[in-house]
Hints:
- Keywords: Membrane, Transmembrane, Transmembrane helix.
- It is a single chain.
- This protein is mostly helical.
- The strands form two sheets. It has a two-stranded parallel sheet. A two-stranded antiparallel sheet has the order 3-4.
- A hairpin with a 4-residue loop joins strand 3 and strand 4.
Amino acid sequence: IVALLAIVRYEGLLMIIPISIVFFIRFRKQKKDLIKYIICISIVILILFPMAYLRNETIGQDGFISHISHGPKYYQSEIQDNSSALADFIYLGSINLVKYLGWIQIPSFIIFVPLGIILIFKNIDYKKITIILSILIMLIPAFYGYSREIQDTKYLYVLYPIFCVLACFTFKIFLERFRRKNLIFYMIIGGIILSSIIFVEWKSIDNEHYAETFEIFTEIGQKEMKVNTELWTYGGELTYFSWASLGNVDEFPILHKEMPTPKITWTPRDKRGGVPEWNEQTKQWDVNIDELDIKIKESAEYYNPQINNLKDYFHVLEKQQITHLLLDENNNSPLIN
């Protein structure tokens, strides 16, 4: 199961840590079970190795160890450049982690999970230890992402199955305290379904906005230009340029290296990870370090938080040779709203 989780998301590989700890705690006196553990680890390796080899051949990295090791390397490089970076990482990671943990509880888990966390520490056994360790380990990738100010709840989705287990502890208490158990059960389920419908409807995306965006980008996507990024009203609008460029492709699907290069460019927010490009000579994906340094400097200049007036904003646009402005009724910058 851990191997299959890791194939879907590399964070699943971290589940080896809590499972191994609980295994050795529970069977520490039974040496024969060590053979079972070695066999299980061997099966995990046999499942992951072909996928790691395939990814390494196609994209230049295995997608498992390469992703996990990237975090410490990033921290190390940032701390060398800025001595106060470590404190900033800890502060941002902690604040954002607590904030997004609260957000993903809405609407279904907001009542049941907090009570479940309290109840799980009563009468601790190896099963509850497994749940607690799994939560702590799965929070590590989320903390890393939030310490880099990546504003996304996807890092916590892996915890949803565990949240369901924690909610069951609360359900059990409710059902034990009241006599009319069926009524309480139906009320809980009905409340969850109703609140979920209301929440989904409230947070539903503006399909009309995205349809209009794609239509407009298809029309202007054939012209060479460099645009601003303030159109990012709902998130992801500018990526439609890549999809619009596929309209002239004769055959689909195609390999990533065969995708036509979009004629429209913009200044990305974060390019520290680098964008690999296909090298025909080595048949591998390479990162141009010189180009990466230029993009990092452009990103820092464009997204400078000290820019608080239109004069400085237009000066940056001119300096980065931005030729066209893309604006909507609502934009993600207070300067042009």
